[in-house]
């Protein structure tokens, strides 16, 4: 029997935000808090419980809860803005907020009764990997699930955990609705029903606690499973790629933090050999200008494409291949541009960057690690090109295409 996570008592007397403006303001208030905690976050390899409570109190996990359910109802543009602000404070915390706030987005694909159960606490956190690394055997009333998944960011403080599976019936793969040889379905269960394995020893995003987890013959009721190709309702938050849209906020926020840091550093620094102040040094001027140019272009691409897509989906329109690919290319470019910018600034700062308390080294490692995410890989670009040309995408999900 699946049980809901235990209801939590209120953690604070402070009112949780109920509007997008308030969420964004509270995110800004958290930036210095996150910066002060960055070394602890990295050292412990997960978010400290007290910091999770601060994120929860500031409404970071409820941003996508609809206004009709008492939430602030941030759209994809506003969610990305909030994540970007948090990333100026700490990349791992922003990454966990970006993942953890997927709870109400998944709820759009679940039966109404389960969606209400999952959202009985609007600050509930969801973690887990939706890719089908597990096996779900059909049994009366649901599935028997076995598998091991990776990269469960925030699972150390999650309430719910998802796990993608291929479905089997009578020992044989069950075909998908669109004629695919296998059916992909996502299971959701309380974290306590999975075994969490401490495998997260990485160079970057160390504090995200993105550990492995596994299940062995776990029973999941049918109503606690869903397909991203079968939304319960209609609207901008009911498309398969809705959980991907706010991801660029993390690299954009880290790049912004690095640029601000270097510009502040430059104000009091002198080029050694020529004894020239950095503000008057050509190579410094060029590096800063190039970085601002690239970051500005990346941000405009992300937010411009998100706004265009939002308008189309809100009007009930269908995305053309170009409109669909627009946000995908902007997303990939944000990860790539951010790492390029921080690498350039790291080289500019030179040996100073390798010593603490300089955050440059951590920012570079964080961006290098997040750049390895499947959503920032070449196969996504191939998929975008294939979709534009009428070919076969190798990763259709990255385009929001799920049969």
TrEMBL record:
Residues 37-99 form the Acyl-CoA dehydrogenase/oxidase N-terminal domain. GO terms for biological process: fatty acid beta-oxidation using acyl-CoA dehydrogenase. It comes from the Bacteria. One of its GO terms (molecular function) is acyl-CoA dehydrogenase activity. Residues 251-377 form the Acyl-CoA dehydrogenase C-terminal domain. Residues 1-22 are annotated as: Disordered. Keywords: Oxidoreductase. SUPFAM superfamilies: Acyl-CoA dehydrogenase C-terminal domain-like, Acyl-CoA dehydrogenase NM domain-like. InterPro entries: Acyl-CoA_dehydrogenase, Acyl-CoA_DH_C, Acyl-CoA_Oxase/DH_mid-dom_sf, AcylCo_DH-like_C, AcylCoA_DH/ox_N, AcylCoA_DH/ox_N_sf, AcylCoA_DH/oxidase_NM_dom_sf. GO terms for cellular component: cytoplasm. The keyword Oxidoreductase applies. Belongs to the HpaH/HsaA monooxygenase family. This is Alkylation response protein AidB-like acyl-CoA dehydrogenase.
């Amino acid at each position: 029997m699946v049980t809901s996570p235990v209801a939590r008592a209120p953690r604070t007397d402070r009112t949780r935000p109920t509007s997008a403006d308030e969420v964004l303001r509270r995110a800004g208030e958290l930036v210095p808090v996150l910066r002060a905690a960055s070394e602890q976050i990295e050292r412990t390899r997960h978010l400290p419980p007290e910091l999770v409570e601060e994120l929860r109190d500031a409404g970071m996990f409820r941003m996508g809860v609809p206004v009709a359910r008492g939430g602030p109802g941030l759209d994809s543009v506003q969610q990305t803005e909030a994540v970007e602000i948090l990333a100026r404070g700490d990349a791992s915390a922003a990454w966990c907020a970006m993942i953890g706030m997927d709870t109400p987005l998944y709820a759009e694909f679940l039966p109404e009764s389960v969606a209400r159960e999952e959202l009985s606490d609007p600050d509930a956190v969801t973690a887990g990997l939706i890719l089908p690394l597990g096996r779900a055997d059909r049994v009366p009333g649901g599935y028997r699930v076995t598998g091991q998944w990776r990269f469960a960011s925030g699972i150390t403080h999650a309430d719910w955990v998802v796990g993608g599976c291929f479905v089997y019936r009578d020992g044989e793969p069950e075909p998908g609705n669109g004629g695919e040889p296998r059916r992909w379905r996502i299971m959701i269960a309380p974290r306590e029903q999975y075994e969490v394995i401490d495998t997260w020893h990485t160079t970057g995003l160390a504090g995200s606690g993105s550990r492995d987890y596994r299940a062995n013959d776990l029973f999941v009721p049918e109503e606690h499973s869903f397909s991203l190709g079968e939304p319960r309702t209609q609207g901008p938050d009911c498309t398969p790629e809705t959980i991907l849209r706010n991801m660029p906020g993390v690299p954009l926020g880290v790049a912004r933090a690095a640029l601000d840091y270097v510009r502040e550093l430059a104000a009091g620094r002198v080029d050694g050999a020529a004894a020239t102040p950095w503000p008057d040094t050509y190579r410094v001027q060029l590096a800063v200008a190039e970085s601002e140019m690239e970051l500005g272009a990346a941000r405009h691409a992300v937010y411009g494409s998100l706004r265009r897509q939002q308008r189309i989906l809100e009007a009930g329109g269908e995305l053309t291949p170009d409109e669909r690919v627009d946000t995908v290319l902007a997303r990939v470019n944000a990860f790539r541009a951010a790492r390029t910018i921080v690498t350039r600034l790291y080289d500019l700062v030179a040996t100073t960057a390798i010593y603490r308390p300089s955050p440059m080294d951590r920012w570079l490692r964080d961006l290098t690690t997040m750049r390895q995410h499947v959503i920032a890989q070449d196969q996504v670009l191939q998929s975008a090109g294939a979709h534009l040309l009428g070919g076969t995408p190798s990763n259709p999900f990255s385009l929001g295409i799920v049969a």
